[in-house]
Amino acid sequence: MNETIQKAKALFAPVPRVQLGFFPTPFYKLERMSKELGVNLYIKRDDFTGMNLFGGNKIRKLEFLLGDAMAKGCKAVVTYGATQSNHAMETVSACRRCGLDPILYLTAVVQPDEKDVRANLLLDKVMGAEIHIVDIEPGETEDDAEARSFVMGAEHAARLTASGTPCYDVPMGGASHVGSIGFANGFVELAEQLDELGLNADYVYHATGTGGTMAGLHAGRKLVGSNAVIRSITVSPKNDAYLTKVQNLANQVLADLGSDLHVDRDADLHMDMNYYAPGYEQPNEKASEAIKMLARLEGLFVDPVYTGKALAGLIDHIRTGKVEQGSNVVFWHTGGATALFAEQQMLGDIF
Fold first, then answer.
1. Which of 80, 135, 150, 221 would be a feasible disulfide site paired with 172, CB 3.0-4.6 Å?
2. Active site residue 149
3. Are 43 and 331 in contact (CB under 8 A)?
4. How far apart are CA 107 and CA 140, in angstroms?
5. Residue 16 confidence (pLDDT)
6. Residues 195-200: what's their mean pLDDT?
7. Cα–Cα distance between 231 and 164 in angstroms, integer?
8. Residues facing 273 on adjacent strands
9. What is the pLDDT of residue 348?
10. Alpha-carbon span 223 to 204, nearest angstrom
């Protein structure tokens, strides 16, 4: 094993962690997509992370988040998301594995039908999570409702803790420096797989929402000294403050691991906001075409909310020359295909 990778792996050993996922996740070349696009396209199958059939990238974060929660003696966990949140569902699953009580505050970006509960929300109910639906009130934006849900959840956690049931507050998407450690570890895992195959990645593409995955990937990239360009395709509108948040998260992860390396916002972070429109949990034509292309060439599925939009960005970057022909490109499949079974207004035209 590459000595730099070996040293990077050792940094994670002292950090509290629970075993939830199945690692390393598969990594291999998409032969037919590669031929179609003129690049060497590889896929990192974090949709196979586990711990159940519907696992995804959040399990990497939850190993460290729940490790921290249990080290602090917590008995319950509260977290947030949209009603079809992958993170929320995976948090419930992880809590059940660890014997913790899961509490969800879910913003109704797409209003669920209680007579026809679907996808992640259905799984949340099957696992018996305590669910609080937060409607977007007249005059409110989605961000307003989310902010209100954070206050409600924090107050709930404080009440439980005061009553003798210590409650751990997990931010939306697990996007904290503790959670992002999981994705720093994930990039080290990818570096080891590339090393075993004698490959260098030119580009790594992924979907970015709350920023924790993006931050962790950049921290991990620094730890192993990779020259790969990480391109983060947004699934909702972002601003400069978002990039600053990601930079700060990444650098906190490095500090937590005892590293003096540094992620620089302007030099290291590459974010593209051209593929999320018309909005979060709202489909678009390029994402629908990307979903069909991967399904029909490789028999694999991505979703219309996250991975479909990231794949659309990758394909467009190749076709417009932002990725050079013959490049080695990694698509990080973060999971979420349960959204293919969600409400119709999330799906768009995918067949």
1. 80
2. no
3. yes
4. 12
5. 97
6. 97
7. 44
8. none
9. 84
10. 16
